[in-house]
Design a protein that fits this description.
Layout (H helix, E strand, L loop, with lengths): L15 E2 L22 E6 L1 H19 L4 E7 L3 H16 L7 E12 L2 E9 L10 E9 L3 H11 L5 E10 L11 E6 L4 E2 L15 E4 L1 H6 L3
Parallel strand pairs: 1-8, 3-4, 3-6, 6-7, 7-8
Antiparallel strand pairs: 2-10, 4-5, 9-10
Helix pairs in contact: 1-2
The chain binds hypoxanthine and magnesium ion.
The site of hypoxanthine has 9 residues, from strand 9.
InterPro entries: HGPRT (IPR050408), PRTase-like (IPR029057), PRTase_dom (IPR000836)
GO biological process, one term: GMP salvage
Family: Belongs to the purine/pyrimidine phosphoribosyltransferase family.
Length: about 220
């Protein structure tokens, strides 16, 4: 491991905490695609709140990394929306202040979930050559539950000896068997529930939903493989 490689875990801002008893908002209060009616239980985090929180994460990232060259490594598929919105907010801050954060963007694909269960075999696709990771890296991941996926990804990325690695995760789940591997920037800390929307899927469905929602039991049955 390079001497100047820093992986921080458990920063002081652990994200907005959503308690176990949070029931979410009634679906009647928001718009969502008709093709998902009956498939959802509630709106857990409305799209606007995600965007507002992402704007703040962008500011924190700018404050810490501003004026360095960074390589953003977007973790597909679930991280694409968070990554795109985070990059947009960083671009806006770079345009509107003396502070600037030059970025390049790259992509990596991970797959470990079937239905709502994590599988043991984690596939990394498109990661064969990460030699572009010479500068700093901010690696947005959409969701971190046990932290096993993040740990595997970090090990893989470290092998290419980047100068620094910072991880941004939109959601961190409170799970009993957490590896303790946490992102440096966290959007929300949520209960151990399976959520969909904002690019998070259940067997590839629900990526086209803008709010983060809890899937209903009938939704799980309908899209089960
Ligand atoms: N939703 C979608 N994908 C996931 C989740 C989740 O709650 N947890 C881990 N991958
Ligand atoms: Mg998935």
């Amino acid at each position: 491991m390079a001497d100047d490689l820093t992986i921080q875990t458990g920063g002081k801002d652990g994200g907005i905490v959503i308690n176990d008893d949070w029931p979410g908002y009634s679906l009647e209060l928001f718009n969502y695609p008709k093709h998902y009616s009956g498939d959802l239980e509630c709106v857990y985090i409305p799209h606007g709140v995600i965007m507002d929180r992402t704007e703040r994460l962008a500011r924190n990232i700018m404050g810490d990394l501003g004026d360095h060259d960074i390589v953003v490594l977007c973790v597909l598929k679930a991280g694409y929306q968070f990554c795109a919105d985070l990059v947009e907010r960083i671009k806006a801050l770079s345009r509107n202040s003396d502070h600037t954060l030059p970025m390049s963007v790259n992509f990596i694909r991970l797959k470990s979930y079937v239905n709502d269960q994590s599988t043991e075999d984690l596939h990394i696709v498109g990661a064969e050559d990460l030699s572009f990771l010479t500068g700093k890296v901010s690696s947005p991941a959409a969701i971190v539950d046990t932290g096993k996926t993040m740990k595997t990804l970090l090990k893989h990325v470290e092998a290419f000896r980047p100068k620094m690695i910072k991880v941004a995760g939109l959601l961190v789940k409170r799970v009993p068997n957490s590896s303790g591997c946490l992102p440096d920037y966290v959007g929300f800390e949520i209960p151990n529930r399976f959520v969909v929307g904002y690019a998070l899927d259940y067997n590839e469905y629900f990526r086209d939903l803008n709010h983060i929602c809890v899937i209903s039991e009938s939704g799980k049955l309908k899209y089960k493989v």
